[in-house]
Amino acid sequence: MPIQLIIRNPLDRDAREYIQRAGVSNAAGRAQINEFVRGIKGLGLWNSMVCWPLRSTQNAGTGTTAYSLGGLGTYNGTLVNGPTWGTDGIVFDTAIKRISFPINWGMGRVKSSVFEASISDTSGSNLRVIGGLTTPLFLNNVFAPGIWLTYAYDNAPMQSRGSFVQLPINTNTLLTLGQVSSVRSEVSKDRNVYAGANSPTPYSTNLTSVDFMTDTTGRASFFLVTADGVALSQTESNALQNLYKQTLGTGLGLP
Amino acid sequence: MTTNFEPTERIIAVSPQDVETLFVDLLNVYGVEVQDGPRRIKTLGAHWDDAEKTRIRAASLADGTITPIVLTDTRVAFRCLWPVALAQAFEEGAIEGVEELTPAQLAELTPQPEAAE
To answer: If one looks up domain A13-246 in CATH, what number appears?
Structure first.
């Protein structure tokens, strides 16, 4: 009787491509990547997103390249000035250390982002997501000229200084940022932070990358953007966050 | 692969005009080959690669994995691990035009980020 070969839960083709490109060798990491890619495709978001899994077992885990994963294309990030790879994500211990993501106009309109991070110092505890060479810009500014962002957190102002997001200390936090409408509005629910228009400023055309950094010490395990004009709805945001918690974010103790 | 490098970061400040020539000269004398992912790069600087500090990786101006920190006095600073021999030369003041800074001095000389309105 011939042996019947049964392959359970085979790797998704795109997951395999990423795993090979990034050199992911950890078995659990490979499985988590695979489940995440399948889930993203199930949500219909694969072709509109790119993300950077930053836990050492889910990316190269060594060197200065943070490989990207997503249907938008290849947008590998660069570790600049020495952030380190850790099992729970990239670790920052001074303000000069950052990851530079090549988010730019070539991706189409960037509308939403999701990230998981924590800040572990009590002084100057900002997480910064900064685009542009000299002017702090957040992602949404690239598609909506003249929009600064205001953030809210659990129905209270979180930080109103444009690109600065203040996180709760020593708490692993999964956040969605995005624009839900073109009018000035803020919606804050379930740790989703949406942006509204505020304090119009001149549009910058020199955006070639977005930097992710902390003022002092912190850690980040995941960064995702949707582009090509696709904004996450509240429902999609919740589904994506749940998917992350069940796959790439396993073990981070996310609420 | 950490034996050629000091385990602690040092910060040096130089004139931006001197960066290119100075580092090219120093690279010829003190350069060490260091891993960066699948690549090996001859470099003067390195960073810890993992949070546990068990291995180092190359830091290169050429590919932007180390960038100058612009100081308020117009100089630029670099913060990384350095080869032992070069660090010793810094300490002895043997490299003209280079001043070593403490983290506190660096903080004092670093412009504060602008807050968006």
So the answer is: 2.60.120
Exposure string for B70-92, b = 16+ CB within 10 A, e = fewer: ebeeebbbbbbbbbeebbebbee
Give tens-digit pLDDT for B95-111.
999 999 999 999 899 88
Asked if residue B89 is part of any domain, the answer here is: yes
- Domains: count for chain B: 1
Nearest to residue A43, comparing CAs of A253, A233, A251?
A233
ipTM of the complex as predicted: 0.92
Full domain range(s) for residue B61: 10-109
> In this complex, which of A85, A100, A128 lies closest to B49 when CB atoms are compared?
A85
Task: Kindly list the domain boundaries of chain A, sorted by start residue.
Answer: 13-246
Contact B113 A128 (CB under 8 A): yes
Q: How far apart are the C-alpha atoms of B117 and B115, rounded to whole Å?
A: 6
User: Is B90 within a domain?
Assistant: yes
Its pTM stands at 0.85
* B59 part of contact set with chain A, CB < 8 Å: yes
Answer whether residue B114 is part of any domain. no
Cβ distance of A62 and B55 shorter than 8 Å: yes
* φ and ψ of A236, to 5 deg: -65, -40
Report chain B residues whose CB lies below 8 A from the CB of A86. Answer: 50-52
Q: Is A84 within 8 Å of B117 when comparing Cβ atoms?
A: no
Q: Which residues of B touch A164 (CB under 8 A)?
A: 115-116
Nearest-angstrom CA–CA distance, A236 and A117 = 20
Interchain contact A128–B (C-beta under 8 A): yes
Q: How crowded is the C-beta side of A152, counted as CA atoms within 13 Å? A: 15
Name the nearest CA neighbour of A14 among A47, A56, A55, A43.
A47
Q: How many CB pairs under 8 A join A and B?
A: 87
**Residue-wise pLDDT tens digits, A87-108:** 999 999 888 899 998 876 566 6
